[in-house]
């Protein structure tokens, strides 16, 4: 029996996923976590074969959780299940160590198939993600401005693009307002933009707005 750990801050999502997973007859949920720190604690304290991880988590982002898990247990496969479409995060997270990326709009049968695939030691790469990965091949000169941002910069870029204030982002990421302001300045400089309005327009034009 394949052992699954679910990390998502919404209890309803966890309950639904647990039902889908256990109805397969081949997997069971051995632990659930509702925050980033809780996820790390449960992963360290329980035996699981696959982790299902959301990106948006309180107290610690899913991106940071992914990197920490990958650093501590590089052989533990992680399936990202997110509300964000593939073109926003999939390539970055797979490069950071995720074994697969799916949106929460995916059919239950696809989730089960992906988990079984990953539990077998393989990557789950959908056609959409495969195309994005193929497009990533190239030099920095060929990349769009948002593609040269670091993972943290990109995360803050998306939050700024969704009209979040610096204070709101600081609360979401548990960082200081000064730190977020520094990141904002760096992002604008790297992307050669002047202000948040231009940043938001860029996000809309490149289908990155949430």
Please characterize this protein's 3D structure:
With 210 residues, the chain is of the alpha/beta class. It folds into two domains: 2-135, Rossmann fold; 140-205, Winged helix-like DNA-binding domain superfamily/Winged helix DNA-binding domain (Arc Repressor Mutant, subunit A, Orthogonal Bundle), CATH 1.10.10. Helices cover 52% and strands 12% of the residues. Helix 1 (11-23) links the parallel strand 1 and strand 2 (27-33).
Summarize the structure.
This protein has 10 helices and 5 strands. It has 210 residues and is an alpha/beta fold.
Molecular shape: globular
Q: What fraction of the residues are assigned to beta strands by DSSP? A: 5-15%
Report Rg: 17 Å
Strand order of the largest sheet: 2-1-3-4-5
- Supply the CATH superfamily name of the largest domain: Response regulator
Q: What is the CA-CA span between the terminal residues? A: 37 Å
CATH class of the largest domain: Alpha Beta
Give the number of DSSP strands.
Answer: 5
CATH names the topology of the largest domain as: Rossmann fold
| Helix-strand sequence | EHEHEHEHEHHHHHH
Main sheet characteristics: 5 strands, parallel
How helix-rich are the residues, as a percent range? 40-55%
Uncertain runs: none
Number of domains: 2
Derived from helix and strand composition plus strand pairing, the structural class reads alpha/beta
Mean model confidence by pLDDT = 88
CATH architecture of the largest domain: 3-Layer(aba) Sandwich
Number of helices: 10
